Amino acid sequence: MRIVLMGPPGAGKGTQAARLVETFGLKHLSSGDIFRAEKASGSQLGKKLAEIMAAGALVPDEIVVEMMAKAIAAVGDDGLMLDGFPRTVAQAEALDATLKQNGTPLNAVVVITADDGEIVERITGRRACGSCGKGFHVKFMPSARGDICDACDGALTQRDDDREEVVRERLAAYKKQTEPVIAYYRTSGAKVIEVNGSQSPDAVTADMAAALRSLE
Ligand code: ADP
Ligand code: ADP
Ligand code: ZN
Predict the structure, then answer these.
(1) For residue 87, how far is its CA from the centre of ligand 3 (angstroms)?
(2) Could you read off the pLDDT of 14-62 as tens digits, one per residue?
(3) Rounded to two decimals, what is the model's pTM?
(4) What are the extents of the domains in the chain?
(5) 213 is catalytic
(6) Beta carbons within 10 angstroms of residue 166's beta carbon
């Protein structure tokens, strides 16, 4: 099964992907995580990505398409949950071409919805473990141990682009460049499934699991 997971920043894509991929035998490929790893490597490309991400703008399509094509090729024939890619119509077209070439078309596009007020509160309270990557929220999904990860003892950190000013930019980029991707998939005949992200994390997981089961 190959799924594209969409939704505004903070909708809960990463949280839900982490909860569901194992059950459905999917590999989770997050473009943001891939770019942050490149940034952490200190490479020339990583430095360029860091500047763009800090401003809340989108990384140019050529770079995104090349890096994601490599990551998808590395997954091979396994099931796939793409999180954060594609984010422009040009990226969606490139993904269609890649998947067509591999003979592995998309099964569905799952869109997690959330409204602007929720998004800002979710993103500014987002924390992640610097050691194991587990995600938290200071109010909605706190660690049982405060600033320390309750899974591995690692320290919780905040992404430097999770500040309110940058969130506004990211939200604007989503509306302008990414919402048209949903329309693109609808007109191209892909199965688009909307999930209400303004519920408790468990309720969202239940709705998503039901949607994925209907595709098996
Ligand atoms: P995305 O990957 O879409 O940017 P995340 O999964 O990282 O979003 O979630 C953003 C923040 O909101 C995280 O801190 C997460 O713990 C929290 N969160 C995720 N889903 C919910 C939810 N349904 N209700 C409240 N908070 C949530
Ligand atoms: P979120 O889901 O919270 O918006 P991500 O971790 O998916 O955050 O993305 C972080 C940043 O990485 C984005 O603001 C953007 O700069 C860059 N990025 C991630 N995916 C893409 C993409 N498909 N196209 C362009 N830029 C991207
Ligand atoms: Zn941890």
Answers:
(1) 29
(2) 999 999 999 999 999 999 999 999 999 999 999 999 999 999 999 999 9
(3) 0.96
(4) 2-210
(5) no
(6) 20
